């Protein structure tokens, strides 16, 4: 496919060699004065290049001109971040409680998956990862920079943290003293704008992805299954995962609904012909399938009669023996979710579908090992009749889907991980200001009522201690959750 050149993975040997070469190159540039010329410096044991530039400040000044708009945007960002921080904190607490009560149920993942470095991690391809991280880091830091200027804080430099060609981070450098001395609410808006902008960008990109997904059609009308039940009629007939079923008993099947309607007309014990398009070679074959009893299958699994009656499963119902049945465009439909043009539900359905779709996007690289669509489902796609499909074709559509997917994935990742309530994440700074605000309120209440007196330095001391303690507790919790599957 056209996007394969961006799906490169690298090994540890190549990484170690690249690190050594990068270190020697940086050392040479430092000794020759190149880093001084570029307004750059080496940090983190001399292995990371911090590149600063004053360029972009004029653009930033123009963009941030509608001050009232951006301050309102900062206030919205703050509320979004508070909600997201609550979700993050609740998720961590529930995970810890579940691990303590029920024991660790998570499967130990390869250690390489814990390293979020494009190309080195098997779930983040080098090409797509670099492109997505560069764009999303710029989005993040622009959010901080625009908000800083909207509140009158000066921005000295922009820049990237580089490890060879790989971006490790981006930064906007407001004047530190101006951040510290600014009103608490303005400072919180500035910290919230970065992760919130990533979250907003992800939402907009999901909408765009949905529109692109609507431009695909199925190369072969039919349905396929990712799981074939062992010893079922389908298994004994030779059906394999990802084979496309185009007809059964002479009736064409285009969708999952067609399959369900046809199976209702058939009975257990019938032997019927089934036409399939084989995954991998595209040949068409006819398989003879002996349909088994759906009722007996579920009884063997332990279902009782009352449950089966509620599921409207009766003795003699035909059962093929396939699971996770889906149509030819299921690969992109799954990514688009609620944003797909053909998706229809109620208002409540959309509210439920948005977080579910977001979670599906996040786990996709783990399920498919670094690709947005399973290779088998990608082969089932063709360009549809829409204007975009006619303009750029199948290769162009696949390129757009992959680009949008990785931009969404990295934006969500940056947005939510930056809201962990620990320093140096933005969430840590927000949490620190929240604690400071609460303690200041308690101090003012005591001063107003005369019931107690608290020194201003006590507020500062308590805030620092609470911030440090929360960061330490969260670090321990994350280490526990990540490390528990390996114990």
Could you describe the 3D structure shown?
This protein is of the alpha+beta class. It contains 17 helices and 16 strands. The protein folds into 3 domains: 300 residues, no CATH class; 105 residues, PDZ domain (Pdz3 Domain), CATH 2.30.42; 68 residues, no CATH class. The model has no long low-confidence stretch (mean pLDDT 84).
What are its keywords?
alpha+beta, 4-stranded antiparallel beta sheet, Pdz3 Domain, single chain
List the helices and strands and how they pair.
Blueprint: H1 12-32, H2 34-37, E1 40-43, E2 48-53, H3 57-63, H4 67-102, H5 126-150, E3 155-163, E4 166-174, H6 176-181, H7 184-213, E5 216-218, E6 223-224, E7 227-228, H8 233-237, E8 244-248, E9 251-252, H9 256-265, E10 271-277, E11 284-290, E12 292-293, H10 294-300, H11 305-310, E13 318-319, E14 322-323, E15 326-327, H12 330-336, H13 347-368, H14 375-379, E16 381-383, H15 387-417, H16 426-449, H17 456-483
Antiparallel strand pairs: 1-2, 2-3, 3-4, 5-16, 6-8, 6-15, 7-14, 8-9, 8-10, 10-11, 12-13
Measured between the Cα atoms of the first and last residue, the distance is 40 Å
Proportion of beta-strand residues:
5-15%
Largest beta-sheet characterization: 6 strands, antiparallel
Structural class: alpha+beta
Number of strands: 16
Radius of gyration computed on alpha carbons:
28 Å
Number of helices: 17
The chain-level mean pLDDT equals 84
Helix content: 55-70%
User: Please, how many domains?
Assistant: 3
The protein's oligomeric status is: single chain
The low-pLDDT segments are: none
The coarse silhouette is globular
């Amino acid at each position: 496919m056209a996007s394969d050149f961006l799906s490169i993975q690298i090994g540890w040997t190549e990484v170690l060699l690249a690190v050594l070469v990068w270190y020697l190159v940086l050392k040479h540039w430092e000794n020759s004065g190149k880093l001084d010329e570029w307004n750059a410096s080496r940090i983190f044991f001399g292995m990371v290049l911090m590149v600063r530039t004053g360029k972009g400040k004029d653009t930033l000044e123009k963009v941030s001109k509608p001050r009232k708009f951006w301050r309102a945007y900062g206030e919205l960002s703050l509320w979004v971040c508070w909600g997201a921080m609550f979700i993050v904190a609740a998720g961590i607490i529930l995970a810890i409680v579940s691990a303590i009560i029920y024991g660790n149920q998570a499967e130990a993942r390869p250690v390489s998956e814990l390293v979020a470095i494009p190309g080195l991690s098997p779930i983040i391809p080098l090409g797509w990862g670099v492109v997505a991280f560069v764009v999303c880091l710029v989005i993040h830091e622009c959010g901080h920079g625009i908000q800083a200027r909207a509140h009158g804080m000066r921005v000295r430099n922009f820049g990237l943290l580089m490890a060879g060609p790989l971006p490790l981070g981006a930064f906007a450098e407001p004047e530190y003293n101006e951040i510290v001395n600014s009103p608490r609410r303005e400072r919180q808006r500035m910290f919230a704008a970065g992760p919130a902008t990533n979250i907003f960008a992800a939402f907009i990109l999901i909408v765009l992805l949905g529109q692109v997904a609507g431009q695909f059609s199925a190369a072969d009308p039919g349905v396929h299954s990712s799981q074939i039940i062992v010893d079922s009629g389908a298994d004994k007939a030779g059906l394999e995962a990802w084979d496309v079923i185009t007809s059964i008993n002479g009736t064409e099947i285009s969708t999952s609904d067609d399959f369900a309607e046809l199976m209702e007309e058939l009975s257990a014990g019938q032997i019927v012909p089934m036409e399939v398009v084989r995954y991998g070679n595209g040949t068409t074959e006819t398989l003879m399938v002996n349909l088994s009893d759906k009722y007996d299958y579920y009884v063997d699994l332990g279902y009782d009669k009352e449950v089966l009656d509620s599921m409207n499963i009766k003795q003699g119902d035909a059962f093929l023996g396939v699971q996770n049945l889906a149509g030819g465009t299921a690969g992109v439909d799954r990514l688009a979710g609620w944003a797909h043009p053909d998706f229809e539900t109620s208002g409540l359905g959309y509210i439920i579908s948005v977080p579910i779709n977001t979670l599906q996007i996040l786990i996709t690289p783990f399920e498919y090992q670094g690709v947005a669509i399973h290779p088998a489902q990608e082969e089932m796609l063709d360009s549809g009749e829409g204007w975009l499909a006619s303009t750029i074709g199948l290769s162009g559509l696949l390129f757009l889907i992959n680009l949008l997917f990785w931009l969404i994935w990295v934006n969500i990742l940056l947005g939510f991980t930056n809201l962990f309530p620990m320093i140096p994440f933005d969430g840590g700074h927000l949490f620190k200001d929240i604690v400071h605000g609460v303690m200041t309120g308690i101090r003012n209440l005591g001063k107003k009522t005369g019931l107690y007196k608290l020194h201003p330095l006590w507020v500062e001391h308590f805030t620092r201690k609470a911030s440090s303690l929360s960061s330490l507790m969260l670090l321990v919790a994350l280490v526990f959750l990540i490390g528990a599957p390996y114990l």
